What we know:
Elements: E1 3-11, E2 16-20, E3 24-39, E4 42-56, H1 57-66, E5 72-86, E6 89-103, E7 112-113, H2 116-127, H3 143-146, H4 153-158, E8 178-179
Parallel strand pairs: 4-6
Antiparallel strand pairs: 1-3, 1-5, 2-3, 3-4, 5-6, 7-8
Amino acid sequence: xxxxxxxxGNLTSAPERREVGGGAVMATFGxxxxxxxxxxGSWVDGHTNFYNVSVFRRLAEHTLRSLEKGQRVIVVGKLRxxxxxxxxxxxxxxxxxxxxxxxxxxxxxxxxxxxxxxSASATSATQHGTxxxxxxxxxxxxxxxTGAGGLxxxxxxxxxxxxxxGAGAWGAPGAEEQTPx
Length: 181
């Protein structure tokens, strides 16, 4: 059985690279999550849970390039609790297969660098109409007559394009690749 959960904690070990079947990349690291509570006006540490985190494919590559031991992160993934036995000893292991992972910005600042290889495949999918997030507006009420967002073609062409902070990193390849988030 597995449950999708979100955990914030600190890396107890540096991400370690492994190769799995078919040449896929895997990264593993330890994660500690400590309960904190306010007692008599002071914060005190409570119980600490320890997790074995596994990350696969492109997310593993990004993890290996981005994270270090001690960093505070937010992990979303499938939780698996399993019993083990080795040489007559038994125990329970709590494993987390991460589907999303990033720094906890409550404790620091991060800079985002877009992966050009993944953005090129996303651009290709959008151009070929296979991206489920790229809607043409046909399923939006009232958009059938005027197109997406309720604007007709002339209004859309005349509408000013807002200057968005950090939008350069989401533009075409070769554009500025750093964002403030």
